[in-house]
Design a protein that fits this description.
mainly beta
C-alpha cells in the first residue's frame, strides 16, 4: 500500500500550487480521501476531504474558497488545488485514505509547502 504525494514547493504569497497523491496497493474507489497539513509546532489538521465516489466535498474554514479537492478514480489519484496561498498555509501536506466501511486508513509521507516572499 502506498500513497505518494507530490507537487509541493516554495511559492510566493498569492501564488498557486497543485498537490497530487497517487495511490497504489488498494482499491482506491473504496476509500474516502482527505488532505491534512501540519505546521511546525502545531497539530495535524484536516484541510479537505472527498467521498469515495466524488460528490460533496468539505473544507476547513481557513481554506474555503481558495482550495479545491478532487479525485480521479481511473488514475487512483487525489488532488488539492491551492490558490491565493498565504504564509500561514506553510506546512507539510499529507493525504489520507479511509475505507468507507471498515475505517482502515493509510497515510502518505507528506510534501512540504512553503509560502514565502
Amino acid at each position: 500500500v502506498q500513497l505518494v504525494e507530490s507537487g509541493g514547493g516554495l511559492v510566493q504569497p498569492g501564488g498557486s500550487l497543485r498537490l497530487s497523491c497517487a495511490a497504489s496497493g488498494f482499491t482506491f474507489s473504496n476509500y474516502h480521501m482527505s488532505w491534512y497539513r501540519q505546521a511546525p509546532g502545531k497539530e495535524r489538521e484536516l484541510v479537505a476531504d472527498i467521498p469515495r465516489g466524488g460528490g460533496i466535498t468539505t473544507y476547513a474554514d481557513s481554506v474555503k474558497g481558495r482550495f479545491t479537492i478532487s479525485r480521479d478514480n481511473a488514475k487512483n489519484t487525489v488532488f488539492l488545488q491551492m490558490n491565493s496561498l498565504k504564509p500561514e498555509d506553510t506546512a507539510v501536506y499529507y493525504c489520507k485514505g479511509r475505507h468507507w466501511y471498515s475505517g482502515t486508513s493509510y497515510w502518505g509521507q507528506g510534501t512540504q509547502v512553503t509560502v514565502s516572499s
